[in-house]
Task: structure prediction
Amino acid sequence: MSTKTYFTPEELESTNNLHLKELFDSLTDKVGDMEYPCVGAKAALNSGQLRIGVYNNMATDETTMRLGHDLKHYIAETLASDSEYMTMVAFFREKEATAELNFENNLWAQLQLLHNSDNSSKPWDPEVSSNPADTNFSFSYNGTAFFVVGLHPNSSRKARRLGYTAMAFNLHRQFEQLRQKGVYENMKKVIRERDIAYDGTINPMLKDFDKGLEAPQYSGRHVEESWKCPFLAGKL
Result:
């Protein structure tokens, strides 16, 4: 695996690769907007803790291999620094922007391939459920639970709308760290207030989060109550 796909902000700021610069600028312009609602993403940007992965099309074997390799790097880096905000944003070189439903299908297909390729001895984090319909579900890779945020040009939510197709990964333990510090509830309240100001309404899927359902939030699409997550965990 000779081609580099995982980058720090310092590497992207100094690169001569115009495409990489455009990707990074699209993200920093989005998150750096004063009105952008997610203060966690702002903290990652302002502290130099964004990590960027760049891949070909979603849900291919090559992309899965490279993304899996980089996620392991991101996990190790985040744990080593005990970071509460380090975020990995994976960009995909899709030929053209897709509709919301197509993006959602591709996102879950990519997560399924990541899971299927996971050769760690215990791929699922014991702190979370592997059943998307469970209130304690989170996606897990290499024994580590994640919260996943889909981003793409045709998202109906302004906060999820980006000029490129991407998925942001955060370690689930970061939310627990913030809870232990007593700042998580206030942070969530601030993000929701900012989201209403930014997008006109609160993200309807966040209501599900209060009930513990995480899977419906990943793609950014407003899914129906009858929605069934297409992900299936195995090798448990």
The longest strand covers residues 144-151. The two ends are 28 Å apart (CA to CA).
